[in-house]
Structure formats: C-alpha cells, structure tokens
Amino acid sequence: MRLNKTLTRVGALSATVTLALALTACGNGSDGGGSDAPADTATGQPANGGGGDAATSEVCAAVGAAPNSDTVTLTMWESLQGPDQWVQQAGAAFTECFPNVTVNFVNVEIGDAPSQILLDAPAGTGPDVFVVPHDNLGGLVAAGMVIPVSNPDAVRANVSEGAALGATFNGVLYGFPTATETYALFYNRDLVDTPPTSWDDMYAFALDFNADHPGSYGFVFDIGAYYSFLFTTAEGNRLFGPSGDDAENTNINSAASVAGMEQFASLRPALDVDAGDLNTAIADALFSSGEAAMHISGPWNVQPFTDAGIDFGVTTLPSLVGDGVPATSFAGVRIALVSEFSANEDWAQLFAEFLTTPAMAQLRVDITGALSASSSPITYENPVISGFQEQMAYAFPMPSIPEMGRFWDAMNAASANIWNGADIQAELDMADAAIRG
To answer: N or C: lower Cβ tally within 10 Å for the chain?
Structure first.
C-alpha cells in the first residue's frame, strides 16, 4: 500500500555494503581481477572465488550454479531513493560471482510497475525482473505477466513465512520478497511511560490523559480499512481465510469480526472525533505536534516524526479482548517478479533468488533502512525499527486475490459508518456482499 515510501538512510553502511562496493571495484578490473576469472566448469562460479576473497566466496556460495556461460544483460525495474542503489550494488556482487552477467537498473517506481509491465513486456521492451507491492500479484498472474519461482524451497528458506505467503498466489510461489512493512504503535516518550498492551488499557489511559490534557488525545489513528482491519482479527479470524485466498468467505462479517468491531466502536468516547476527520494526515499531524500521546502508523513516519522533534518509541499493537497477544496488522511485502517475457529466464531467476540471500538482505537494510523480508538475523541502525520487526510476527499479508480490490471501498465505508454509530452487523454484512460482488 505504501511500499514505494522507503525510509531515509540510517547511519553508515555496514560491512556488507563495503563488500558490495569492493565487488564493484573487482568487476571494474581492480587488482582482485574478479571479472577476468575463468568460471569453474562444475559450479559456474568464478574459479578463484572472486579473487580469493573469503567473504566474496561466501556471497557467491549462497546461490546455485550458473545456468550457462552465455553473455547476458539483465534489466531490473526498481524505485529511487535507496532501492536503486541496492540493485546496483547487488548487481555488481552478482557479476563478481558470474562475470558473464551484467545487471542493468532502470527506474520504474513500484506503484507504476504493475500497469507499465502490461504495455512494455509484450512489446519486448520490458524488464527481466521487476518489483511490485505484493497485493498486485493476483492480477499479474491472471494477465500472464509473470512466471513461478523455479527454486521455491531455497527462497522460502531465505525469507520469513509471512513474506513468502505474500509472494504466493493459488498455492504457487511467484515472488521473491525483498522487503516488508507493517504498522505498529508509536508512543511519545514524554507523555507515555509504559505503552498499554491491550485496547482496554489503551482506552483507560486515553480517558485519563484527555481529562488531564484538554484539547489533546491519548491516542489517534486513521479509522479507515487499512487500520480498522486489526479489529476484525480476534480469535484468528482472517480476511479471505488463513491463506487470504478464499474468495467465497471474506470473514469480514463473522462473529469474531463483529465482536472486534464492537471494541473498535467502543473507543469513540476516548477519541471523540467524527470519522471524516480521522484520516491519515490529521492523525499524523496530531502526533507530530505532540497533541496525541500514541498513534498507529508505519515505518514511513519514522523520519517525519524524528524531524518534528518527537522523542518516540515503537512497540507492538495492543491486544484485543480475549486475545493475549498483539493484535494482527496488515503486512505489505515488496516482491521481485520474473517476467514471462524475459529472454534470460534462468539467469533472471537466479539473480532474483540472489536478492533474497542473507548478505543481500542486510545490504538492502543498510542502504534503505526498510524492514527486511529475511528469515536471517538482520541488524538495524535505528533501534525503533525493532518495534516494527516485532509486530511483523503478528502481521497478515494483504490478500492478493482480485476480490481484494473491492475490499478497500467496502470496508472504508463500513468502518466510517460504524465509528459514527451505525449498526455493526448490518454494515459488515453490506461490506461482505460488496466484496464478494
């Protein structure tokens, strides 16, 4: 949903980035001589392991053997402001492993890629690999634009379970997850000593806070579908079922969903603002001005809130009634896909898999600061990122089936009406009917 908004670069680049830069130098004919190394005929790797560098050998060993020895140029579409640098440095590292392959970065923002691929790929001007938000996957599969992952076991081992689920359609893994995002609870350290762990505690805190701070709020959040979804997830209830692909059963009007939305509606006295005035911009402004003690938002707001001078922390969402764990949030997964029209399908598959390896996952975090999709331990320069990382353990990837396109309008309307006092069951029944079409 907001996957094209990466975080501002955090701190100095790690040793992984230094490695990638070193690999770039080798590929340009430095003393390491990596690009001139003859390939081992058995493995397809450079015979000298990238000039004898142990770290380089380790990176190269993370991927399989070369499909062939043809001279190949791969084109990859990605966004600017960080992901571009990552593709370029990862491409240089891949070239160090496979000197016959060059990776060419082309800027196509991920929000534009799903529509542009429909035009460019059939015309022969598209990429070998391109990146999209994962909820576009179903439409791209239906349009015949992408091919399944050729080595799914390796990719699933490299990425988190939730990221792999987001990259899967109809039980088939199509995507190579490169980053994830979810929302969590921001809290102003100057106003909150210990953030509440349940919505009941959140409500009680807010009533007291509001009384002591007239004109301010204990908590704020956009009450639209992206965030109100969390209230529909009690007792393991999930939109379109556990795998997000049951188009016949939205579960949006189930007993668990109704009970959760009852708790949602019960929060109104602590945040007595009309639904029309509780959008993202207003909620962000209240928190960044210090007029709200807590706010539900995502990593895209880390830098803006820092720039606003707010001393904040990030933690997991409060639990719903009856659940002893943080509430479930929506997760977005940034996925690389191999084009059906690629003339270098085998190499494109291998490079996309390479992007999911631990070293390349750490490299991406070091450059962009965004939340990783990796199953391996990842180091973050900014400590608040750990709050989102913890929430990811309770996050549910946004379904990618075509019916998801109807969810947003239907649930946005239902959430606003429920917040303003409408009958909960009736609103959710109407949303269910609209989503199922």
So the answer is: C
**Tens digit of each residue's pLDDT (9 = 90 or more) over 248-279:** 999 999 999 999 999 999 999 999 999 999 99
Structure tokens at 246: 């049951």
Q: Pick from 289, 303, 286, 229: which is nearest to 5 by CA? A: 303
- Taking Cα atoms as reference points, which of 406, 397, 396, 412 lies closest to residue 435? 406
Neighbours of 208 (CB within 10 A): 11
Q: How far is CA 149 from the centre of its chain?
A: 19
Element (H, E) at 172: strand 172-173
pLDDT value of residue 33: 29
Contacts of 361 (CB under 8 A, 6+ apart): 158, 178, 372, 373, 374, 376, 378
- Residues 79, 118: Cα–Cα separation, whole Å: 18
Q: What is the pLDDT, as a whole number, of residue 34?
A: 31
Which residues of the chain are under the pLDDT cut of 70?
1-55
Given a contact cutoff of 8 angstroms between Cβ atoms, the answer to whether 298 and 284 are in contact is no
Q: Is the dihedral of CA 104, 106, 111, 112 positive or negative?
A: negative
Given the structure tokens 């399944």, which residue do they identify? 148
CA angle 13–18–22, rounded 5-degree value: 155
Position 31: which residue type?
Answer: D
Strands 72-78 and 129-133: parallel
User: Could you tell me the domains of the chain?
Assistant: 15-181+332-388 (3.40.190.10), 182-331+400-436 (3.40.190.10)
